[in-house]
Structure formats: C-alpha cells, structure tokens
Amino acid sequence: MTIRSVLKMGDPRLLEVSAAVDIIDAAALEPLLTDMWDTMAAENGAGLAAPQIGVMQRVVIFGYQTNSRYADAPPIPQTVLINPVITALGEAQEDGWEGCLSVPGMRGVVPRYRDIHYRGFDQYGNEIEGEVSGFHARVVQHECDHLDGVLYPQRIRDMRQFGFLDTLSEKGVIELQPCDDDP
C-alpha cells in the first residue's frame, strides 16, 4: 500500500494515550496494517506502533526473520497485537541499548523486564497471548509504550548512556552494526 511518514520526537501526538480498538474488523484494519508493515520494512525496524504514523489506536506490529540493525538478535515471529496488555513475569530487568524510528539517529540504555506475558487480539479478533523474554520482550514493551505516549528516552535512567549513534560508535561506547544507520 503506502509507506507512511514516521512521526518524530517532539510531535505532541507521540505523547498521547491511544484509544482502544472497539470493533476489530479485519477488512477495515487491512489498509492500516499493510501500511504499517510496509513502513516498518522500509525503515528497517523491528516493530511499529500505530501512533508512530499518526493513528491513535492501540495497534502494534513486530517481528522479522533477519534484521541488519539487530544482526545478533534471533528472529521474532511477525505479530499483530491489538489492545495489548503486558504483565511482567517476575521482577528481573535487563539494561539494553534501544533506538526508535521516532527518535532517529539516537540510542540509549533502557531497563526492561526480562520476561513478560502479553495478550491482546490479532486483526481477526482472535485472542492471542505469549510469554517472551530477552530481546523479544524488549521489542514488545517498547512498541506498547508508544500506545501510552511513552518514548524510550523517558525510561533512560542514566543520561550518560544516551546519545547520537554515530558519536557513540565513534567514541567506542556502542558497536555500530554494518547497516545500523537508524533512518
């Protein structure tokens, strides 16, 4: 369909809480989801939330087989998650570098729950749920934060671990992946 423009940090819409999807209609959602998958692929992302393209609904997508930005991460199944609810499975958290299509060119260390359970609905209205850990859990939490108007820099605890990717790489703080140019 269409590759949409991704809203950038500073756009007040990214700080809004998104509305629940009241009626899940696959035919009505298809254009949005197609645009989201096309946009995510064009931007080389691991996930995308509807608010990032200006649609203030509780819809996220995530998943890939391979991704040059995350060369060491295992594949994540392509998933559509509508009206998600996340529950931490324990208190254990891990710090990890994150980037965002809405915060281009920057990276920061963000604490996330290591293990989570998520549930919601797919585009057909079927209830889905999963228990995931590690990078997969990080991606789900990151995308779902967008639905509550939270960008990853708001979760950074130590601003010394936040900066422009090219500078962090040049100074040896973070290793730049071959295609990690963060659009």
Through-space gap between termini = 20 Å
Alpha carbon gyration radius: 16 Å
CATH class: Alpha Beta
Helices, by number, come to 3
User: For this structure, what is the CATH homologous superfamily?
Assistant: Peptide deformylase
CATH T-level topology = Peptide Deformylase
- The tally of domains stands at 1
Q: From the helix content, strand content and strand pairing, which structural class follows?
A: alpha+beta
**Helical proportion?**
10-25%
Write out the strand line-up for the largest beta sheet, numbering strands in chain order: 1-2-3-6-7
Query: How would a textbook summarize the main sheet?
Result: 5 strands, antiparallel
What are the SSEs and their pairings?
Layout: H1 26-43, E1 47-49, E2 59-64, E3 76-88, E4 93-100, E5 103-113, E6 115-121, E7 127-133, H2 134-147, E8 162-164, H3 165-170
Antiparallel strand pairs: 1-2, 2-3, 3-6, 4-5, 5-8, 6-7
Put the structure in a nutshell:
The chain has about 180 residues and is of the alpha+beta class. The protein has helices spanning about 25-45, 135-145, 165-170; strands at about 45-50, 60-65, 75-90, 95-100, 105-115, 115-120, 125-135, 160-165. Residues about 180-183 have low confidence and may be disordered.
What key phrases describe this protein's structure?
183 residues, disordered C terminus, alpha+beta, 8 strands, Peptide Deformylase, three-stranded antiparallel β-sheet
